[in-house]
Design a protein that fits this description.
204 residues, alpha/beta, Rossmann fold, 6 helices, 35% helix, globular
Length: 204
């Protein structure tokens, strides 16, 4: 698998196959994703998720998938990099239930599922604020709306990785300790070219 720079293991192949089956089953009733076919899900969701790994550091650090939905990109990342300590944050109950099923059936260790809105967690000034090495988000909303939420969970020296095209409106004014830039992953095989917003918080 070119994205991994190695062939997938037998365990990874089994995990992705089981994940795909669960997603297809649940999608019939709960519309977890607009993609309906196995090939579409594998290419547009699973493989696309692995692109995020390029900017995850440290690989054994704490990673938050903000607006995890059906587990994209967090679950595919965890399957191929089990060292990641993964938290999946999802505001919709059915999707949170699906995530719990996936984690249980795939026997994924080191995964925490949080049901609720990011805004509520931030308002509560909870223990998770400022604790994550990496925050990833995919199709969870406009960057201008998502960035303030993601940054609240990011610790100094951490990084936000968000996929999607550059926004039509400029990003909101960011604090001085925050830097950002765009990265482009060229198309290859059946994977279309992708744009990623990389936002970094300076360390202490």
């Amino acid at each position: 698998m070119r994205l991994l720079r190695r062939a997938p293991t037998a365990g990874e192949t089994r995990a992705f196959s089981r994940y795909l089956l669960l997603l297809l089953q649940w999608n019939r009733a709960h519309h977890l994703t607009g993609y309906r076919g196995s090939a579409e899900i594998a290419e547009k969701l699973f493989l696309d998720s692995l692109l995020f790994l390029e900017w995850v550091t440290p690989i054994d650090g704490k990673l938050l998938d903000l607006g995890a939905g059906a587990g994209i990109p967090g679950v595919p990342m965890k399957i191929v990099e089990p060292r990641i300590s993964l938290t999946l944050l999802e505001a919709r109950r059915r999707r949170s239930s699906f995530l719990a099923t996936v984690v249980r059936d795939l026997q994924l260790e080191g995964v925490r599922i949080l049901y609720g809105r990011a805004e509520a967690l931030i308002a509560a000034d909870g223990e998770l604020l400022g604790t994550f090495d990496t925050v990833v988000t995919r199709a969870a909303g406009p960057p201008g709306s998502i960035l303030p939420l993601a940054l609240a969970f990011l610790k100094p020296g951490g990084r936000v990785v968000a996929s999607g095209p550059p926004p039509e409106k400029p990003l909101p004014r960011l604090p001085q300790e925050i830097s950002h830039h765009w990265e482009t992953v060229p198309a290859f095989g059946k994977i279309a070219s992708r744009r990623f917003l990389i936002v970094e918080k300076k360390g202490d």
